[in-house]
TrEMBL record:
InterPro entries: Poly_Biosynth_Transport, Polysacc_synth
Source organism of the structure: Leptolyngbya foveolarum
Bilayer topology term: Multi-pass membrane protein
Protein name according to UniProt: Flippase
Keywords: Cell membrane, Membrane, Transmembrane, Transmembrane helix
Localization in the cell: Cell membrane
Pfam families membership: Polysacc_synt
GO CC, one annotated term: plasma membrane
Transmembrane region(s): 26-48, 54-78, 99-119, 131-147, 168-186, 192-210, 231-250, 278-297, 318-340, 352-372, 384-403, 409-427
Length: 450
């Protein structure tokens, strides 16, 4: 059956819209990365190493605990609202939004109060400013959690960029404006506690903005429908999303939290610029990985393994080449980079060398995770991910007490590289695909299935 002329037009317009949305989200994330980098320099300069550490340590705790606080609903609503919209199940969509809001308010408040209680019991000589910063950050959790759920609802309604806009653009801008304004007025008297409060003000404002966006985006049928509820199903379906989401978040934050627990906020302040600088090396992995994933799935489904191997080898070489360029640049200009945050941050130079080397190695093998996920081996990928997370925690617990900031950098690098290496071996074992920059040594064998 031939497709009518307008079918091709519709397909082209849909593809164009998809490309436009992807470009918009990518642009937002790039802008957010730049603003976050500028914010880090600003706060390090204004607050100093210790104050910057107190701020970061408190906010990272809020970020980590927002995972159990949202109970997976921030990601579950993405899927379920899209399903309800396709099925025109307006009553259930209305009910889900109301039920998720109430549930998340209750859970986030409970998590925040429990965290404050536990922290007060375990305080044992903790610097009072660090403890107060933690408590203030915990009180922000209901606003952060609600914002995440409403952002997820916007994604489910296929308004991804608009849903991310308040968090990725307005939030850092509000923090910068309030911090600069306060510093102009009070100068060096500005404390990390006030900056945490400014962060909370930004979270509240952006919650109102994303709520307004959601209200404007919701179909009229949802607003007018009488809500219907499937609470037991929603809760049981949301929990796995929470478990899946927790792996990368724990993996990305455990070093900061354990360093703060063992060595204090000052060590965190020194470590964060090192960590964020080294994370630039992984940017190419995310960019290539997001584009490569559907290609892997398609070629694997079609059985074009030789073609897939060729695509993977060229992609791995691009990732490794760009990652090496970033790592080498950071190592060569490490003094200049760290001095942007202040002269006291030059003490993190050795940790930056360790992190750059480790992230280059891990990034060069990092496409292996995507290869497993896109070929029906999600369980193996998840197992490796959890294994890497556990090893990361153990390594940090052993190495931070011994070597402080350098130990955290070494532990995190070893954990990431080990997980990537195991996934690379698993891809070779299960798919017979070579994920190294060398590629398959037996070229004739690689061509035989084409």
């Amino acid at each position: 059956m031939l497709c009518p002329a307008d079918c091709h037009v519709t397909y082209a317009s849909t593809t164009d819209r998809m490309k436009s949305k992807i470009a918009g989200v990518f642009g937002l994330r790039l802008t957010y990365s730049a603003l976050t980098f500028l914010t880090s320099i600003l706060l390090a300069r204004v607050l100093g190493q210790s104050g910057f550490g107190i701020y970061t340590y408190s906010i990272v705790w809020a970020y980590l605990l927002s995972v159990p606080a949202t109970m997976g609903f921030d990601n579950f609503v993405v899927k379920q609202i899209a399903v309800y919209q396709t099925q025109a199940s307006w009553r259930l969509m209305n009910g889900l939004l109301k039920w998720a809001n109430r549930t998340v308010i209750l859970s986030s408040t409970s998590v925040a109060l429990l965290a404050i209680l536990v922290a007060s019991v375990l305080r044992d000589g903790t610097q009072s400013e660090t403890f107060l910063g933690f408590c203030i950050a915990m009180l922000l959790m209901p606003a952060l959690s609600l914002r995440n759920v409403r952002r997820g609802a916007m994604r489910g309604l296929n308004n991804v960029a608009q849903g991310l806009l308040p968090e990725l653009l307005f939030d850092p801008l509000i923090l910068i404006i309030f911090t600069v304004g306060a510093y102009v007025v009070v100068g060096d008297a500005l404390t990390p506690l006030w900056v945490i409060i400014f962060y909370g003000i930004g979270s509240g404002i952006t919650l109102l903005i994303v709520s307004r966006f959601l209200k404007q985006t919701l179909p009229n049928e949802v607003v007018e429908a009488k809500p219907a509820y499937e609470g037991r199903f929603w809760l049981s379906a949301a929990i796995p999303f929470m478990l899946l989401e927790s792996v990368p978040i724990i993996n990305s934050q455990v070093d900061v939290l354990m360093l703060g627990a063992f060595k204090g906020a000052t060590a965190v302040g020194l470590y964060v610029p090192v960590n964020r600088g080294a994370q630039l090396i992984t940017f190419i992995l995310m960019a290539v990985g997001s584009s490569l994933s559907p290609v892997i799935a398609s070629k694997y489904a079609d059985g074009k393994m030789a073609d897939l191997q060729q695509t993977i080898t060229s992609s791995v070489r691009v990732v490794a080449g760009v990652a090496f360029l970033f790592a080498a640049t950071l190592i060569v200009f490490s003094s200049f980079y760290l001095s942007l945050f202040g002269p006291e941050f030059l003490a993190g130079q050795d940790a930056l060398y360790i992190f750059c080397t480790g992230n280059f190695i891990a990034t060069s093998m990092g496409l292996s995770y995507g290869a497993l996920n896109m070929t029906g081996h999600e369980r193996e990928a998840a197992t490796i991910g959890w294994g890497a997370t556990i090893s990361n925690i153990i390594l940090n617990a052993v190495l931070i007490p011994l070597w402080g900031v350098n130990g955290a950098a070494l532990a995190t690098s070893l954990g990431s590289a080990t997980g990537a290496l195991i996934s690379l071996i698993m891809v070779k074992k299960t798919l017979n695909l070579d994920m190294t920059i060398i590629g398959p040594l037996n070229k004739a064998s690689a061509r035989s299935d084409s």
